[in-house]
Amino acid sequence: MExxxxxxxxxxxxxxxxxxxxxRLFVTQxxxxxxxxxxxxxLGAALFERERNGVRLTEAGQTxxxxxREILRRSQKAADEVRAFSPSPRKRSLAIGYIASTPASYLTxxxxxxxxxxxxxDVELRELQPAAQIEELRKGALDVxxxxxxxxxxxxxxxxxxxxxxxxxxxxxxxxHSLAKRKAIALAELAADDFVGxxxxxxxxxxDFLRDACRQAGFEPRIRANAGSLSAVLGLIAAGxxxxxxxxxxxxxxxxxxxxxxxxxxxxxxxxxxAWRKDNESRELKLFVEAMCSAAGL
Length: 298
Known about the structure:
It is built from nine helices and twelve strands. It has about 300 residues and is α/β, with parallel strands linked by helices. The chain has three domains: about 5-85, Arc Repressor Mutant, subunit A (Orthogonal Bundle), CATH 1.10.10; about 90-165 and about 270-295, 3-Layer(aba) Sandwich (D-Maltodextrin-Binding Protein, domain 2); about 165-270, D-Maltodextrin-Binding Protein, domain 2. Strands 3, 4, 5, 6, 7, 10, 11 and 12 form an eight-stranded mixed beta sheet that branches. Strands 1-2 form a two-stranded antiparallel ribbon. α1 (about 5-15) packs across α3 and α2 (about 20-25) crosses α3 (about 30-45). The longest helix has 25 residues, at about 60-85. The relative contact order is 0.15.
């Protein structure tokens, strides 16, 4: 067995479709099919059952899946540990995705501390909406995604999820709203207002959080508009199209005409998570996640 064959097998098992696995691996579908066939021939057992819309693991395939993950994890760990002995260690890199509301002060502080402790690691930062980050994770183009709230599009059998920050949630009102000058309001006081949400295809799960919060306060929110970015949400609110709930750190974005107001009840908190693929066992990734948690006191 070759490590390449195990990587192809693992991707096909996760995607349950050879074509999608090939796309994530940036190789052709015949190349993946050929490697899987050679692996099955070498092991003398069928690993997949072919179905109309994809593939399904056989009992033998399920057994190999457990070992493949461990073999790939150990091979990456061995490579990382041996490279540490190199007199001229090669520059390592870490690709990080983040959303616009991530405060520059917080991320900068994390990166400064991380860089001082790990000078041999290059960091690439990419500002992407959550859905785009998830897609880049699947392709292997990102090592870690800082997407804000976790969502169903990050299945736990494929991704590791870790909370790196907990943030208070505030109401965001048009400047001319009758409650905008209050220091704090109860969410129930907004039951008669229209709300602005985030486009589900770009920000999966965000409107579910909004609905759940309003239900805690005893009402169902009327989401009259969905925006494609956090800046657009703030613009619609300033224009009087509605109001919303956002983590307090979103106030770091320019928001003329929109006012952030604390909630007296219910006390809401949004969890900001880091997500990465289960098959990514890089030491650089683990060091960065630990640095984020340490900075947040988690």
